[in-house]
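Predict the 3D structure for this chain.
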Amino acid sequence: MYFLLRIYLIFVYVCRCHYTNIELVYMKKIFCLKVFLSFLAFSLGCSLSADAKSFVKKTEGDLYTITCGNAVMTVNPAQGSKIVSLTLDGKEVLAQHKSPFNNNDYGATFWPSPQSNWNWPPIATYDRNPYTVVDDTKSLVCVSGLDSKYPYRFTKEFIADAKRGCFEIIYSIKNESDADVSVAPWEISRVPGAGLIAIGAEKEYIHPLDVMPFQFSDGVAWIPFEPSPKQRKAFFNGSGWLAFVNNGILFLKTFPDVDFGMTAPEQEEEEVYINENTTFIELENQGEYVLLAPGASLDWTVRWSVSYVNESEPGTALKAEIDKQLKKHK
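Done. Predicted structure below.
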């Protein structure tokens, strides 16, 4: 920057020394200013490109980290490009792998919906098999293989959005078959069995209502965690966001709001699954159910953020903290 300033001053000096006519001096100064601004724009462009590139870093074990402020997201391309960690100042937010008998107890993954098309377990090609990293400069872009029975091609792009202060994940599903396919995008994020869940949904848009300790206020369905020996599941037609508060940290996900009836069969926009005891919780969100012609694809954007909050109990004060972060996501 200092070098560019010196160039500008030299230009101005030349203009003043060699042109006595006021109009000519003025014209030359305008020219000099344009030259200086061009140099400045070039310099800032290089700086921003360098900063964007530094958001993504390959680490040990072929993991990748994406950094946004004091938050770090870690992705493992060798394991289905699963998000295996999300930290705020080193404090972990996502559930971590514990059970040697369950590969679906941690991190965040992405499936095609509805589940009735493939039942269980998740399709290995998209859930846990290696993805190919095709770009790791300004963002991390990973592409799946092609499953013989379910011929999709998944792409996941992970971006640090410094302006919004959040992570942006762009999921793509491409129909690689020679027939029309109906599908919806489905993100599953696992957090510890603890804390408080919040969803922007009214009571009449939730089912069933008798499986979790729901509280309702400020247009929010609050679910304080209570352990149980049974697995529990509830569906929500919400308003495009899911939140989880634990250990003084708010984890917020936003995504396109889907009109009622536009999700996959027997699915809703949001779902909460609570595993038995204190193992893990799944915060799930789905996009619109669409028909893909051969070769066609859909794109679906989800944003994540983590921030400190002073409140941890259901109510107006915590809703205000959530609203503050929701504005940043827009």
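Helices lie at 2-18, 22-54, 124-127, 316-329.
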